[in-house]
Give the backbone structure.
Amino acid sequence: MNTTLLKKHFAMAALATGMLGFTQHTIAQTVNEADRHEIVTKLADKLVDVYPFPEISAKHSEALKKAEAAGRYNNLSEDELASRLTEDLNKAHKDVHLRVMRNEQVYKNMTEPRAEGGRNREDDSERRANYGFKKVEIDGATSTAYIDAPGPFYGSKEAFEMAAATMNMAAYSKYIVIDIRHNPGGTGQMGRFLSSYFYNAGHEQFYLNGFYKDRKQDEQEWTYAYVPGRRNPDAKVYLMVGRGTGSASEGFAYAMQKLNRATIVGDTTAGAGIAGTYVALKNNLIVFTPFKMVVGPGTNVGWEGTGVIPDVNTGKGDALLATRKLILEDIVKNGKDSVTREGAQWVIDNTAMATNKSVNMKSKYGELIGKYQNNVSITAGKGGLIYKYSVPGKPVETFVLQEVKPDVLVINGLNANIAPNSSRMYINRNAAGKIESYTRKTMMGNGTIYVAPQPFKKQ
């Protein structure tokens, strides 16, 4: 097996459908007998040569040759032949990666000489995809960095520069969330690069192991000894995954999970665990050929066929919402700063408000009705209790009160310029349980909570 040749065309171990999205405008031609035989033979031989499991590649080869002898590939267009070859390969043994495709542009890129230093359409597609990284959002209130990395994971110089810039944006956050729910894969080097930021130099980790048909060529993959910028070894890491997480991005999640370095949140991933390369066949047909099985250190077990199973399985639910809740709960439980803990609990309480809509506000908090200092009054309305605030010369502003939890009410809409549900009333009761006053608190944009200097008492 010529591993060097394979690596030369290594276009990234990604789900083929997501990586080859060029529109085909040329009318596909019917494949003649000689070309068809050459395509089938080259495909079968290539699988026997490089597929990491000889017993499976033998089944693939036998299935292809039997189908050709039976005439299944006669008088087909290029697209039809690609589809039927893929169908027969999957009948012999289903492999998410293994697929024959018709793609005129990629076939041309692979088979025609290029001018020295020239850039092709694949290069430009990397730039348009922002080298696999979409955005970084920093939440200073919770010290959380959210990284949206829809991928794919490219292996170019520019891609690693973008990854380094992304990680340095997140370098001072206590919580790192990396969203790879829609990342189809790419080069496994990118996952190792990102993982390296979460370890101190000198503490490199055995990340994944790859084996070939020739087991003498097995490769140990380790995190890197050097990464540009600041490392963040103390960050708590959350990786969001889903059905759209494939191949190398699955490897990133799998390795971080096995290293106990990240909490995986979301849905089970695609289950594409055999890395591969694109091979040009003929007549604009190419095949993504798996050639390296990727597994965990010291085992023969990976995620091929099963996918990465999340630690927190949300199914089709909102993985981002679930991740944010995990972070808030961790802050409340382990945070050293009381202000941050109170702010986190505030947000957690807000998420539970929807279940309190059935509370009869008039019956439970009717004692609040009346006038208060600072031009505030509380009245009964059709929707329950109404908080009214008046300023001379301006229309009276009205806001509906809703229970957050017992004796804590949100003033819906007040200070909405800061954030939704940012103002609350905390009810103060006497020893007999009667309402004496309330204290108003406001969650500010930076996560701190402003407390009004005096309680509001009924006049």
